Amino acid sequence: MSVRLERSTPVPTTQSTATLQSQPPLDSGLRPGVFRRVLGIVGVQNISLLMAIALVVAVIGSQNPLFFTVGNLRVIGTAIAISGLLAVVQTIVIIMGALDISVGSIAGLTSVSSAMIFTATGPFIGVVGAIGIGMLCGLLNGCIIVFGRVNPVIATLATLAAYKGVAQLISDGRAQGYTGADGFFVFLARGTLLGVPTLIWVLVIIAVLAHVLLRYTSVGRNIYAVGGNDIASRLAGININRYIIGVYVATGAIAAIAGVLITARTGSGQPVSGSEGLELEAITAAALGGAALKGGKGTIAGTILAVILLGILTNGMTLLGVNSFWQNVAKGALLIVAVVIQQLRSGERRIGLPG
């Protein structure tokens, strides 16, 4: 039998009681302001990302004043739109405790498909057809993982090669179609709405929808639960297989939208160019944004900040004349740093070191 010891609380004297009564409550007059609301959305854990962005902006801006021009800021915004879409949906997959390495290949396949369907029919059917193909690719990924009982990394690594091969087969390895004269694709690539490029609006809309899904719906809570503890989630009645397939289908759809944007920017369907390496950028941004690769943790706000940081770094290195090969080295190094930081924060025993 255990005995619970209660801690006695001293009774305040008359003088101390009067003093306490004379002092205003600690939170009187402290109403949640704009700063607190923004901080609640961004997250305290993302302050380090904001500080890193400020530092990088200051360093690059001091070396090249052209960095702060409106034209260059537009370039950064439009450049991160496509990788940002894939990073947002990759974050959801990682929160669920999985990974999708095939998103870049799906974007390439749907880029070619949208251009070829557009040439035969029109822009609307081209976009809808591309999204349908992307959803089928995501469905195939989910079915391989669920019914084939294949690790998500191995499954999507295989489909990464397969989807890239299909894109090259149907396009004969060349760019297909020409969308540079179509009003809809031109609006996607170079149009503006309220002074903001359309590409950025697409990213903002998808990011807001993903944020609302994860934070304010039961579906989002279940995704966190599945990533945090799949056994407990199954015992709680969550249909894990349905969530895995659903998330991968959604991933394919968003990757298809990214493919359509690639087609709009380049004016033609690109089987590889424009989509190769996007999976690495998406995973890097999600990890930098705080998404735990073991699942159950991550935010869309953190991912967007990481996407902005990567975009600024890439643009800054280009302005400063850094070799593009070194840019790839920097992205790989950032991914390693992000994973190491996650491992240190988790407090788990490092592999190869004594416990």
What is shown here, in short?
The protein is mainly alpha-helical and 355 residues long. The chain contains 15 helices and two strands.
Topology readout:
Elements: H1 14-22, H2 34-42, H3 47-63, H4 70-95, H5 103-120, H6 123-147, H7 152-171, H8 183-190, E1 192-193, E2 196-197, H9 198-216, H10 218-228, H11 230-235, H12 240-266, H13 278-288, H14 300-319, H15 324-346
Helix pairs in contact: 3-14, 4-9, 4-12, 4-13, 4-14, 5-6, 5-7, 5-12, 6-7, 6-12, 8-12, 9-10, 13-14, 13-15
General description of the model:
One of its GO terms (cellular component) is plasma membrane. It is found in: Cell membrane. It comes from Cryobacterium arcticum. Keywords: Cell membrane, Membrane, Transmembrane, Transmembrane helix. Its main location: membrane. There is one protein chain. The protein is an all-alpha fold and 355 residues long. The protein has one domain (70-338): ABC transporter involved in vitamin B12 uptake, BtuC (Orthogonal Bundle), CATH 1.10.3470. 70% of the residues lie in helices and 1% in strands. The protein contains 15 helices and 2 strands. The protein has helices spanning 14-22, 34-42, 47-63, 70-95, 103-120, 123-147, 152-171, 183-190, 198-216, 218-228, 230-235, 240-266, 278-288, 300-319, 324-346; strands spanning 192-193, 196-197. The chain has a two-stranded antiparallel ribbon. Strand 1 and strand 2 (196-197) form a beta hairpin. Helix 4 packs parallel to helix 9 (198-216), helix 4 packs across helix 14 (300-319) and helix 13 crosses helix 14 (300-319). The chain is globular. Residues 1-30 have low confidence and may be disordered.
